Amino acid sequence: MNAPLRRVGVVVMVLFGLLFANLNWIQAYKADEYRNSDYNRRVQVAEYDRKRGNIEVGGTAVAISKDTGGELKFQRTYPGGETYAHVLGYKPVNLGDIGIERLENEFLAGTSDQLIGDRIKDMFTGEETAGGNVLLTLSKRAQETAYKQLQNNQVGATRGAAIAIDPRTGAVQALVSMPSFDPNPLTSHDTEAAKKAYEKLDEDPDRPLANRALNETLPPGSTFKIVVAAAALENGVGQQTQIPAGRSWTPPTAGHPITNAVDSICPQAKVTLKQAVTDSCNTGFAQLGVRLGADKIKEKAQQFGFEQDDLTVGQLGKGGLPVAASRTGDMQNPDGSTDPAALAQSSIGQNNVRMTPLQGALIAAAVANDGSQMRPYLVKQLLAPDRTTSYYNADPRELRRPVSGPVAGDLRDMMVNVVRNGTGRKAAIDGYTVGGKTGTAESGPGTPDHGWFIGFVLDKNGTPISAVCVELERAGSGGSAEAARIAGRIMAAVIDSGGR
């Protein structure tokens, strides 16, 4: 054989070798990936041949599957549209799924190991095993109230969030992000139409797909004063202790003075801690924070949940919707020493302090619940397709204890005074004890301020019913008062619904 033919033969043998190796690689190592790929048409047809389970809120199905009669037999639909979008997510054909639809996909699809008994039973009956049902903790009335009140807020805010939780258990009662989106176009079996709908949402500068209640971190303004007040109470300061105040105060090394919202707020040289909380005295808390020191402020914030990177909300003891970490930020000079100006600004919820609405609700919940902060969760129960067997029931558990019972009691008293006599009056509910703290936070040069409110409601026996946080992004003047009003409506809805 001459040299050219030998070279051709060697090349052919090498190519056959590579082809053989590739086939073995696909069969041995990639088969499961390709078989289970969302883009495998056979898998899609098989998946949509089985009816997916419902997701339910208060006995009402908010995610259901309808028979289309087409090749993909069942289509996922969401009767509540935008109201539940950031909790439920969506289950599309060729796009990535999100939300509870993704977290509980195997159970909803009927492929979970938990449902193997149901599948074996249906082998003998000849029936097609349906997916299991997921029951959420949300209160239908509170969720719908939160959505409507945010959408129709009285200050014209177009972005924001609201979240309410049961302080005794951690069960999420409402979770809304604004703007929201309609998940129904995303689950269309016309995959091109679904893709275009997704691209439109993804390109929207207001980011309607973002879950602001769990993942947006913004400066919390004066709501952070509850953390500073907690640190003060644990370090020798009482509700009636006089602290330095005044119309303005310039921290050491600072070029600009810290002032109050209006001149009439704590103009005197000293006020009590209770009065400083009630009237939201910036000069008082700035000086108090510097007196306490950065380490004490940071430590107390961490005890409330700041800096936690691994918190999720779904089932208890299992993965869930990810939660962004709230941060206290830097309060130091380049050489590592404390910067009094940065510490003063941080003590009134500015500088680099950033907080999620969930974190705000958790702070209020811990205060309402005698210092015990419960782990938040969304999934209440997993039911078999025929609803006769429960495969999961939430068992509430404590997340942390940021403050003692006596300190929580003092914070409660001061927050109740904020609603009765201070900046949070619009959150009041007749016949119930409501406590809270408003917050106004600068959003940047030339842009309107953010408006915040964190609070709780207790029944006549002092038992906590709900804790809530409302945030209105760039709401401007009146934003915190409007957030308080919305929070009051949400808590009232929880009361009216009995938590359902």
How would you summarize the topology of this molecule?
Layout: H1 3-35, H2 41-49, E1 55-57, E2 60-67, E3 74-77, H3 85-88, H4 99-103, H5 105-109, H6 116-125, E4 133-136, H7 140-151, E5 159-165, E6 172-178, H8 191-203, H9 212-215, H10 225-233, E7 242-244, E8 248-249, E9 258-259, E10 270-272, H11 273-279, H12 282-292, H13 294-304, E11 312-314, E12 320-322, H14 340-346, H15 357-368, E13 373-374, E14 379-383, E15 390-393, E16 398-400, H16 405-421, E17 433-441, E18 450-458, E19 464-473, H17 479-497
Parallel strand pairs: 1-4
Antiparallel strand pairs: 1-2, 2-3, 4-14, 5-6, 5-19, 7-10, 8-9, 11-12, 13-16, 14-15, 17-18, 18-19
Helix pairs in contact: 7-17, 10-12, 10-13, 10-16, 11-16, 12-14
Beta strand count: 19
- Reported by name, the CATH topology of the domain at 215-378 and 400-497 is Beta-lactamase
Give the N-to-C terminal Cα separation: 86 Å
Helix content: 25-40%
Q: What CATH first level of the domain at 215-378 and 400-497 would be assigned?
A: Alpha Beta
Strand order of the largest sheet: 3-2-1-4-14-15
Indicate the CATH architecture of the domain at 215-378 and 400-497. Answer: 3-Layer(aba) Sandwich
Mean pLDDT rating = 91
Tally of individual helices: 17
Gross geometry? globular
β-strand amount: 15-25%
Cα-atom Rg, whole angstroms? Answer: 27 Å
Going by helix content, strand content and strand pairing, the class is: alpha+beta
CATH superfamily of the domain at 215-378 and 400-497: DD-peptidase/beta-lactamase superfamily
Q: Let me know the largest β-sheet.
A: 6 strands, mixed
Low-confidence stretches: none
